């Protein structure tokens, strides 16, 4: 009599396969999706090049008698984060709206029918990657620029009062602005539309509103995303700007609102 060995089937619990969905697996999936597309590397390297390149340029061309002595040292060395932040905002839009353009969203939501875990995982992976990248780039840029600024009135170190907090605040501001862009991409499901909404609504509209001769408008604008991010990235208080703590809270609320809208829409829309 011949016996045939059989491989036991994966264990199940209450009819659920052992290889079911978990938060860790969804996060791992989003991590792989982020790093296996060319656009991620292009936008990340572009952002780093902008921040580091402009920082080196500002440091190497600065002179104490050039009229910029009143500019905050961290702001001076990290001017490039304004351009780098736009590149990372585009990355945030591609993380969400890009999947609708390629059709990958259908596969993602078929694999995770509840949908909201996908959005949470995208936001989590994006936030961790962009904050780490922005912080390391800001530190490298500041230290490199200070090599050129040694001996000038803009010479400073990370141990100076408020400098390290401002460098970290700069990274936090860039990350939260990108998270707003990610939310816009998820809500609009269109890469061009989300980029237009971010540039127009987040970058341009506050500048236009700031031209209006109303004191209440000036007060409100200081809590808009880009203005709040600017307050976070300065080692010295900016006249007329929100305090760093208030600016961080405002940015967190903007980012939460930008993610709440697509979260609600995911429950009502078809993919």
UniProtKB/TrEMBL annotation:
Keywords: Membrane, Transmembrane, Transmembrane helix
Regions crossing the membrane: 41-62, 82-102, 123-143, 163-188, 195-214, 247-266
Keyword Transport: no
Name this polypeptide is given: ABC transporter permease
Source species of the chain: Streptomyces narbonensis
């Amino acid at each position: 009599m011949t016996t045939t060995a059989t491989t036991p089937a994966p264990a199940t619990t209450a009819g659920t396969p052992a290889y079911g969905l978990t938060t860790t697996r969804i996060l791992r999936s989003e991590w792989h999706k982020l790093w296996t597309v060319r656009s991620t590397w292009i936008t990340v390297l572009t952002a780093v090049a902008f921040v580091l390149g402009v920082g080196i340029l500002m440091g190497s061309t600065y002179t104490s008698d050039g009229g910029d002595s009143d500019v905050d040292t961290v702001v001076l060395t990290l001017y490039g984060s304004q351009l780098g932040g736009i590149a990372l905002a585009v990355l945030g839009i591609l993380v969400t709206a890009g999947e609708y353009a390629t059709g990958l969203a259908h596969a993602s939501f078929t694999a995770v029918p509840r949908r909201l875990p996908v959005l949470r995982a995208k936001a989590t992976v994006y936030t961790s990657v962009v904050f780490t990248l922005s912080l390391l780039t800001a530190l490298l840029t500041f230290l490199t620029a200070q090599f050129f600024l040694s001996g000038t009135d803009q010479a400073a170190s990370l141990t100076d009062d408020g400098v390290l907090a401002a460098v970290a605040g700069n990274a936090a501001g860039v990350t939260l602005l990108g998270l707003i862009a990610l939310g816009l991409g998820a809500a609009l499901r269109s890469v061009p539309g989300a980029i237009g909404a971010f540039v127009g609504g987040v970058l341009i509209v506050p500048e236009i509103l700031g031209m209006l001769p109303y004191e209440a408008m000036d007060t409100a604008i200081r809590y808009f995303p880009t203005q709040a991010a600017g307050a976070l990235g300065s080692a010295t208080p900016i006249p007329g700007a929100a305090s760093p703590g208030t600016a961080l809270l405002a940015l967190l609320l903007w980012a939460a609102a930008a993610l709440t809208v697509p979260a609600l829409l995911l429950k009502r829309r078809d993919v």
